Amino acid sequence: MQPSHNILGAILLGGGFCVHLALGTFYLWGNISLYLASYLKQFDDNVTSSSLAVVFPFCGLLINIGLAIGPNLARHIPQLTLVWISAIAFPITILISSFCTTQFFFILFYSIFGALFLGIAYLPPISMGWNHFPNRRGMVSGIILAGFGVSPFLFNFVSKLLINPNDIQANVVHPDPDGVTFGLRVLALCWAICFILGAAILTIYRKTQQRSGNLAETFTQSTTTEQDKEEVSAGFKSKEIYLLFFSFIFCVAPYFFFMANYKNYGLKIGHPDSFLTVVGSFASLSNGVFRTLWSSLLDYFTYKRVFIPMIIGQVTLVLTFNSIADTQGWYFIWVLFIAIIGGGYFSIFPTITSKIYGTKAGSKLYGFVFFATSFGNFIQYIHRSLPILWNLHCLQCDN
User: Fold this and answer.
1) CA dist list (Å): 132 to 12, 136, 246, 354
2) CA 232, 238, 239 angle in degrees (round to 5)?
3) What are phi and psi of 117, to 5 degrees?
4) Prediction pTM value
5) Which terminus of the chain is more exposed, N or C, with fewer CB under 10 A?
6) pLDDT in tens, 28-49
């Protein structure tokens, strides 16, 4: 007896969630960056939190490059195989980075090689879900991408426990260098388990579909027809694709800024590390949970009715953040809602792209739209380097 369509869909969504649980470790950088900067400083006095801040935008850039080359690789390699390759290669690159003692090699393995495999594995589970539930694309995007948002909630606490259990501020050299490297290696193991579990569940889904003779096309070796090429070409000639691209840039830039620097900012104004770990963890949890809500709203409302309130809320939070930052309660609430709104963009933009251009062309065009996040991330990095632009006095002090 074959499982029902909805049960198969639940298996698919569960596998996609686990894969994105590993991919979401991208956001853990905001919690562990100071630990790693203080650890590397014992080998190189030139290492500072600012010099290592480039890791976050480079991670974003390489994720986007991986996402862009994924469909091209899928013409020669089945997408499920690409997910498996990423599931094995990503933890290995993180493990290697834990042995690095220079900025260059750490950045090379952690934020270039590692993030590339995250990008390659990003879209296949979502594209599969769209094919399985063609009329519930918002729900699919929200559930799978919730893993991306929930991941830092889980691993913020784990990393804090492993690397800084005594709540010591990492302002010069980390007092326990062995704890830093051990913590990063344990995290690599945890991420490997999540990634491989997700790939295994997707494999079960594939085999079940094969037995039923209803194999989803996203798991087969990709083929591109002339009609596909024409649809993608027409998409690039439309004004909507560029409106989506530039909107995405300016939506995610402030979101990335706060997610990368909330701990650095909080420590500089006197908030304890343990409190900031809780802030980042619950912000990430809310980010993931509300991604499902944001994208599901697009199944019932036009994108303008969802998108415009998000923009208004984000602008209000950013402009008022400095005035409330000294109070822990308000600091927690403001970062929480910035994360909720920012995470929502990563749910509604793929859904909007799919609704406008269809599942197959939309998945390819979203690779271009998603690349906008790299520009947004580098904009926040430039603003971090020039803190007067953000009027965040704490970032004028360096570690």
Assistant:
1) 9, 9, 30, 14
2) 140
3) -70, -30
4) 0.74
5) N
6) 887 788 888 888 888 888 887 7
